[in-house]
Amino acid sequence: MAVDPEGVGRDLACLVLTVVELLRELMERQAIRRVEEGGLDEEQVEAIGLTLMALEERMAELRDHFGLEPGDLNLDLGPLGPLLAPEDPG
Q1: Which contiguous run of DSSP H or E holds residue 11?
Q2: How far apart are alpha carbons 2 and 8 in whole angstroms?
Q3: Residue 22 domain flag
Q4: Considering the entire predicted model, what is its pTM?
């Protein structure tokens, strides 16, 4: 059985980026909850917003580098459904 080193690297990158994307989404939801509850001042809201935007931009760069689409990071968990929340159409 031949192993494709490039394929293994891409699969590993996909797995790692999936975990990072899941954490990014959880952090974003937590930040939104805190903002809605009024638990952050303006400076903190700005810092969190900039950080989340930078992380999202870096994720896009990494997906491009490894030839991945956003949907590639959404694992199908069978009866539980997709791992990540569906993209908001805007």
Answers
A1: helix 5-37
A2: 11
A3: no
A4: 0.71
Strand partners, 82: 76
Residue type, 50: L
Please report whether residue 55 resides in a domain: yes
User: For residue 49, what are the domain limits?
Assistant: 28-68
Structural domains counted in the chain: 1
| Burial profile 59-85: b = 16 or more Cβ within 10 angstroms, e = fewer | beeebeebebeeeebbeeeeeeeeebe
Domain membership of residue 45 (yes or no) is yes
Q: Which residues pair with 76 in a beta bridge?
A: 82
Radius of gyration of the chain (CA): 16
Phi, psi of 82 (to 5 degrees): -75, 150
- In sequence order, the 6+-apart residues with CB closer than 8 A to the CB of 22 are 83, 84
Mean pLDDT by 10 residues, the chain (90 residues): 71 88 88 88 91 91 90 75 60
